[in-house]
Amino acid sequence: MPRISATKQAILAAALELGALHGISGTTMEEVAERAGVAKGSVYYNFASKDKLFEELLTAGVSSLSATLRTAREQASGFGAIEAMVMQMLTLIAENRALAKLMAAEIFRTDRVWQHTVSGLRREGVSEIGTALAPLVPAETPEATRLLMAGGIFGATLMGGLEWLLFTPETPVEDVAAAILFTYSGRLAQ
Amino acid sequence: MPRISATKQAILAAALELGALHGISGTTMEEVAERAGVAKGSVYYNFASKDKLFEELLTAGVSSLSATLRTAREQASGFGAIEAMVMQMLTLIAENRALAKLMAAEIFRTDRVWQHTVSGLRREGVSEIGTALAPLVPAETPEATRLLMAGGIFGATLMGGLEWLLFTPETPVEDVAAAILFTYSGRLAQ
DNA sequence: GTCTATAAGGTGATAGAC
DNA sequence: GTCTATCACCTTATAGAC
């Protein structure tokens, strides 16, 4: 017995697809209703407001990313943890392409009601990577510096992942991960 | 004698600040006019439409980034070119914080009239970095792989730069560049 | 639970006086 | 060149029938 009705699920799916396409501000509740195959009144029966609707979508995405990164980190050690996190994050992006686009567009917004939610995405993602970096950087490295590095790895994976899906989607995920990880091998700086 | 009137400049400045704060869709022409200290009619006298207004803003930003990266690349060689590009891109982001936020939010949009403009930002940025990478990667590396790496470096710098400005703006730009570049030293993977 | 109809307010854009 | 006034439309949200 699903605790989420078919209608609610259809609305969420419609909102996700449209939001990825036109952004959240660019998506209207009318369009969402039409795409979900229900009337606008039904959308408002299931979600109190447009903000609540998208917040639910984003919250689910944040949880999903956090859990994925944490699991990847715990299943490997040393630099292997970074490798696993990059790989798993790329897989997640590929599986939830629309959600990834939606979140990428919102990630630096500071004026939304769900700001806390999306900000949590970056913070949790970056801090998971930061934790994995701790044993890999010199002992005297300040935490802020480590978080900047983590932000860089997070950003590289996100940008690389979206570029991959937009321009060369036929490339296997392993190759994309390998390309990003190659930059950390030290062979560029030789 | 400026070829751009004071009014036009005030409107562009207002649109930039508001756009960085609320996004482009979230910014109204009424607000832009108010902040610029002119009437809405004057905004429309200077810009044919809201789209044209923001397109002008974004176009200027793209040119600026492209020029900066090209200059940085040409003034150094080998890995030094990557170092210079990261450093100059961070400097540019710091100097044009609002523009950087505006562009970051639009960079993966595919449905806007200025899509071509913003898409050009990423493409030109990534391809400049890709050019600098050519002598640094194994000879048999496909171009697509090299561009994925370049996208990663671009994404790392953008994300690192925005995190820097949002959370630890007192950190000197050199330290931020050093943190990002450290990840390419190979010392993480040892 | 889902629908239709409508309210209430905002938005991009234009006309025409000055 | 800049202003005020206004249009036509769109958007979120709600009321009430079924």
UniProtKB/TrEMBL annotation, chains A, B:
Residues in coiled coil: none
Known Pfam families for this protein? TetR_N (PF00440)
Molecular function terms, GO-annotated: DNA-binding transcription factor activity; transcription cis-regulatory region binding
Has the keyword Transcription regulation been applied to this entry?
Answer: yes
Q: Does the keyword Cell inner membrane apply?
A: no
Parts of the chain that traverse the membrane: none
> What does the record give as the DNA-binding region?
28-47
Q: Where is the HTH tetR-type domain?
A: 5-65
Q: Give the matching InterPro entries.
A: Homeodomain-like_sf (IPR009057), HTH-type_TetR-like_transc_reg (IPR050109), HTH_TetR (IPR001647)
Question: Keywords for this entry?
Answer: DNA-binding, Transcription, Transcription regulation
Q: What is this protein called?
A: TetR/AcrR family transcriptional regulator
